[in-house]
Design brief:
Elements lengths: L14 H18 L3 E2 L5 E3 H7 L5 H6 L2 E3 L11 E4 L4 H10 L8 E10 L11 E10 L9 H17 L5 E7 L3 H15 L8 H9 L13 H5 L10 H17 L4 E2 L11 E9 L7 E7 L3 H4 L7 E7 H8 L12 E5 L5 H12 L5 E3 L6 H10 L4 E5 L1 H6 L1 E6 L5 E5 H9 L2
The structure holds histidyl-adenosine monophosphate.
Length: 425
C-alpha cells in the first residue's frame, strides 16, 4: 500500500473546518491592519535561500529539498531549484523583481506550505503550513520605524486572542545591526576558542564559520558552555538600543505583555534588531507557535535597494493544534437531512434542498430508497438537527413533515415557512 510520505500528512474533515476557521480569522484581522495577500512560487532558485537564510543555518545546510532541474537539451546543465523552506526570501525577491518600492510601504501576507527535511515529530512536519506577513519598503516610507515592529506584535496578540488562544508568551530580543553583529561575532569567536573542542562537531564547525549559529545547538552537553557565552545585548550600539527601547515602550502603551530573552537569536541569518517568538505552553517540545523579526539588510543582500523590513511566520499546524480543544463550535453540522420517501421523490427532494441551501442552510440530501425505520440511523449519523420528509402526500400538500431529532417533536410545515422554521426564527 502506498502511504503519505514520512513527515507529510493528509488534512481530513472535520479538522479542515478548523484550518478554514483559522484562515478566515487571519484574513479578517490582517485586513483591519491594511495587509494584502501575496502568493509566491512554491519553488525558487536554490541561491535565493542560501543567500538569505544563510549557508550555515540548519535549514540551508541540512533541511532543504533541492534538485537539479533538467535543461532543455540533454547536454544542458540544469538549474538548482529548491522547495521553499520559508517565505520571506520569496517575498523579498518579488519586492525587488517587481520594484514594489514604487508603492511605498508594502504590507503583505501569505498562507501556504513550506518544506524542511526535519526529523518528524509532534508539531514538526516536512511539509508544514505557514501564515506569515512582511512589512517592507524604503526607509523614507517609514519601514524602519519601531512603530512597525510594535504594530506587527500587537496584531499577533490580537489574532491569538481572537482565536481564543490565551496562554501565549511573547519573547523579545534585539540582535542588533550588522556592526553590532561583527563585534559580537568577534567576541563569540574569542569565547569559543578555548572551549570549542569540548563541543559537538556541528558547534566546532560553527565556531569557525558562523559562531552565532552555536545558539541553535540542541545537544544537552553543550548547553552549560553556551549559557556562559556573551550575549548580543551587551553589543548593541546606541541607535539599536534606542530602537529596541521604543518598540518596548509602544508595546507597553498598547498593553501587550512580553518577556525579554537575550538568548533569542532565531535560526535564520537575515535578522537585524527586533527578533521575537511566541510560545504556547500546551504544545510540548515544539512550543514556538510563531517567530519573526527585522531584516533591514536582506533586500541589499539579494541585490536590491535598501529596504528595511519586518515580518513573522506562524506555524499553522501548531496553531490549529493549540486550538483543537476550544474549537467545538467551529464545526458546522447540517441543519437538515432531507429524506425522499418512495419512487419519484428524488426530484421534489432536490428542489427543496436547492431552495433551503439558497437560505444559507447546510442540507444533506438522501435518496428515494430511504426507509424511515431502516435509514434513520444514517440521517442521525450525519448530525443534522432536523429530518425533513418528502413523500407523495407531502408534495401534494406542499407541506412537509419536519422532525426535530433532539426532541423527537414532529410538525407539518408549508414550503414557504420551512427555511425560517429550521433557522429557528
Ligand atoms: P521560522 O522560525 O523558521 O521563521 O518558522 C516560523 C514558524 O514556522 C515556527 O515558529 C514554527 O511554528 C513553524 N515551523 C517551522 N518549521 C516547522 C516544521 N518543520 N513543522 C511545523 N511547523 C514549523 C521563518 O520561517 C521566517 N520566515 C519568519 C519570518 C518572516 N521572519 C521574518 N518574516
Amino acid at each position: 500500500m502506498i502511504k503519505a510520505v514520512r513527515g507529510t500528512r493528509d488534512l481530513l474533515p472535520p479538522d479542515t473546518a478548523l484550518w478554514n476557521f483559522v484562515e478566515a480569522a487571519v484574513r479578517d484581522v490582517f485586513r483591519a491592519y491594511n495587509f494584502q495577500e501575496i502568493r509566491t512560487p512554491i519553488f525558487e532558485e536554490t541561491a535565493l535561500f542560501s543567500r538569505s537564510v544563510g549557508e550555515e543555518t540548519d535549514i540551508v545546510s541540512k533541511e532543504m529539498y533541492t534538485w537539479e532541474d533538467r535543461g532543455r537539451a540533454a547536454s544542458d546543465k540544469g538549474q538548482s531549484l529548491t522547495l521553499r523552506p520559508e517565505n520571506t526570501a520569496g517575498v523579498v525577491r518579488a519586492y525587488i523583481e517587481h520594484k514594489l518600492w514604487d508603492r511605498g510601504l508594502n504590507k503583505l501576507y501569505y498562507i501556504g506550505p513550506q518544506f524542511r527535511r526535519e526529523r518528524p515529530q509532534k508539531g514538526r512536519y516536512r511539509q508544514f503550513y505557514q501564515i506569515g506577513a512582511e512589512v517592507i519598503g524604503p526607509a523614507s516610507a517609514g519601514s524602519e520605524s519601531p512603530a512597525r515592529d510594535a504594530e506587527i506584535l500587537e496584531m499577533l496578540a490580537t489574532l491569538l486572542d481572537r482565536l481564543g488562544i490565551t496562554d501565549w508568551n511573547l519573547e523579545l530580543n534585539s540582535v542588533g545591526c550588522a556592526k553590532d553583529r561583527a563585534k559580537f561575532d568577534e567576541a563569540l569567536r574569542k569565547a569559543l576558542e578555548p572551549v570549542k573542542d569540548k563541543m559537538c562537531s556541528d558547534c566546532q564547525r560553527r565556531a569557525v564559520t558562523n559562531p552565532l549559529r552555536v545558539f541553535d545547538c540542541k545537544v544537552p552537553e553543550d548547553q552549560p558552555i553556551i549559557a556562559k557565552l556573551p550575549r548580543i545585548s551587551q553589543f548593541l550600539d546606541e541607535p539599536c538600543r534606542q530602537h529596541f527601547e521604543a518598540v518596548q515602550s509602544i508595546l507597553k502603551s498598547v498593553g501587550v505583555e512580553f518577556r525579554i530573552n537575550d538568548r533569542l537569536v532565531r535560526g535564520l541569518d537575515y535578522y537585524t534588531r527586533t527578533a521575537f517568538e511566541f510560545t504556547h505552553g500546551a504544545l510540548g517540545a515544539q512550543n514556538a507557535i510563531l517567530g519573526g523579526g527585522r531584516y533591514d539588510g536582506l533586500s541589499e543582500a539579494l541585490g536590491g535597494p535598501s529596504a528595511p523590513g519586518i515580518g513573522f511566520a506562524i506555524g499553522e499546524d501548531r496553531l490549529v493544534m493549540s486550538l483543537k480543544e476550544t474549537a467545538e463550535g467551529v464545526l458546522r453540522k447540517p441543519d437538515v437531512y432531507i429524506a425522499p420517501l418512495g419512487a419519484g421523490m428524488n426530484g421534489p427532494a432536490a428542489r427543496l434542498a436547492r431552495q433551503l441551501r439558497q437560505h444559507d442552510l447546510v442540507v444533506e440530501l438522501g435518496d428515494e430508497n430511504f426507509r424511515l425505520k431502516k435509514s434513520l440511523p444514517t440521517a442521525e449519523r450525519v448530525g443534522a438537527r432536523y429530518i425533513l420528509i418528502v413523500g407523495e402526500n407531502e408534495v401534494k400538500a406542499d407541506a412537509f413533515a419536519l422532525k426535530n431529532l433532539a426532541t423527537g417533536e414532529q410538525v407539518s410545515v408549508a414550503r414557504a415557512e420551512l427555511a425560517r422554521t429550521i433557522q429557528g426564527k
